[in-house]
Amino acid sequence: MRATRSLFLVALRRTPLLVVIAALVVLQVALMQLEHSTWRMSWSEASAAITSPWVYLAPLTAAGAAWAQRRWTGQRVLDEASTLSTLLRSRYVLGLMSSCLLALLVPLAGALTALAGTTGHEVPGTLWPSYLLMAALTAWTSAAFGCLVGVLPGSAWFSPALAAVLVFGRHLWLPHGASSALTRFFLAGPPDRALTGVGVLSACLEALGVTVTALTAPVTLHCLRRDRAWTSWSQRLLLAGTTCAAAAALAVCAVCGPVVHARALPEAPLCTGEELQVCLWPDQAAYLPEVEELTQRADALAHAYHLSTPPPLLEYGLYGQDQPGGDFTLVNGSTRFLAASIAETLAVQVVGTAEQRCTPRDEAVSRWMKAVGEVSALLEMELTGTQRPEGMSDTIGTDWDEVARVHASDDPALRSTWVAQRQEQAQNAISQWCTP
After folding, report:
1. Which of 45, 75, 84, 286 is exposed most, by the fewest CB atoms within 10 A?
2. What is the pLDDT of residues 132-152, one digit of tens each?
3. Beta strands in 263-416 (DSSP E)
4. Which one, of 278, 249, 91, lies nearest residue 181 by Cα?
5. 272 - beta bridge partners?
6. What's the pTM value of the predicted model, to 2 decimals?
């Protein structure tokens, strides 16, 4: 045991994969920092950000492990691994285990980056372990698969290239998404969604299946090359059993989904505002100061336009699973989408709504929506002081330059007249609402 441990420590120090792992750590941190503004205000987003770089890191990890395995053992592993008992004491297993363990340093660097990136934003809670575990399992599986491909016959450059292509294809071409059992990285971590225990189990089974296959691959290849190795029935049964176990684990992991599910509603959502109430997930408490400032401005606008109390605005997911959806989302560390939702809610009250129960005319609906959109744009600028960023879409065709001109005017009469014109346009559309 002591000799094996010494050999393992030597393998950790001397494996060529160390250079690759150092580069992958730098890449993990760099890719997360590029998107720092999107996850710095929420632990769910920060946790998911650890996994998102693995669409690139997984193929690179597999390629690096295949290259390191070729450098560490070459084709000698097929001569060393005549039986499973000799395989377990071979340089190949030492290289496989050291590669898989070293690969875990990359998601660990991602976790430390997430912890450092949220410092100073008063984000409640901590990292979500499920995302971190998913990234760690992806790293382990990629390294094990790279070692598996590294023992296949071929040139020194072919194995890393093949491993990278296959891993990239596995993550990109196989079914993925919230309903799939094979999703392993997440571009966003909204607070209303969480990873399922079954989804994490699927990743564990995949890692187990690939690791067992990688462990037995040299013996299988040795037996295929030398018929005399098949003379032992115990050897046959043991190899067949491990192969079937690995195949079963891989088969089960493909049907263990979905990986993501809707979270249960919190007992006490974070709500703020007087005239207009806005409710958030408790995980989004870091946004609360900005949200409170927006609701105070919204209350002032509601008083200015003599509006009645509008219904509360709930963050996406707070209506519950029976009523999916929501009024706004908090993304990219910004409350801009919330400001747009507040402005639209107030604008509908300013211009009025159609109460007729009939089939509406498309032309009337378009004219009413245009009036609402223009008033909403003005109120949004009142709330934020700026026009919408270029990335936010506007499907109504609002003339933001005109809205900016009205907003910048020091003449209250001009603004009142402009809003009154939109109210009149909306009322005309409502009067022609029903299809004859």
Report:
1. 75
2. 999 999 999 999 999 888 887
3. 270-272, 278-280, 313-314
4. 249
5. 278
6. 0.83
